[in-house]
Amino acid sequence: MLDNNLQPITLPQFRDIAIGEDGRITITPIGGEPGETVEAGFLGTTLAEGAALGKSEDGGIRLADGTLPVADQRSQILNGALETSNVNPVEELVDTLKRQREYELNVKLISIARDLDEAGASIMRMPN
Question: Is the pLDDT of residue 64 over 90?
């Protein structure tokens, strides 16, 4: 995670953590009083609309020229929500089973064609 200056965030040991919509990270320190919160930093966000992004060798997201995108704190962070995928697992499972059946049918058809070919060849053989 990077902060709003695009530097790595290091957090001290904590008992509880919360991230606000604006990216503010607050923690409850291990040695602190219950309910005591300490601001630990901000999550850096960016709006990379229309930018060509790619994954760098270090695993980070970079612009096409290799530089970091500019931090832009206009984004909002949604707490407690799961990121949705563009893949429907049920549809993919059904498609996989369908392809498996088609493959098995093709293997069976090839086997039948080979048997018919052998039968036709044996009919055409001259007896000794």
Answer: no
The pair phi, psi for residue 119, each rounded to 5°, is -65, -40
Helix (H) or strand (E) holding 53: strand 53-55
Instruction: Answer yes or no: are the C-beta atoms of 41 and 29 closer than 8 Å.
Output: no
Angle at 124 (CA atoms; ends 118, 128), nearest 5 degrees: 110
Question: Which of 35-39, 56-60, 98-102, 124-128 shows the lowest per-residue confidence on average (mean pLDDT)?
Answer: 124-128
Q: CA 106: distance to chain centroid? A: 33
Nearest to residue 15, comparing CAs of 32, 2, 39?
A: 32
Query: For position 16, what pLDDT does the model report?
Result: 86
With a pLDDT cut of 90, the percent of the chain lying above it is: 23
Residues 82, 87, 91, 95, Cα dihedral to 10°: -150
Residue spans per domain, the chain: 1-78, 87-128
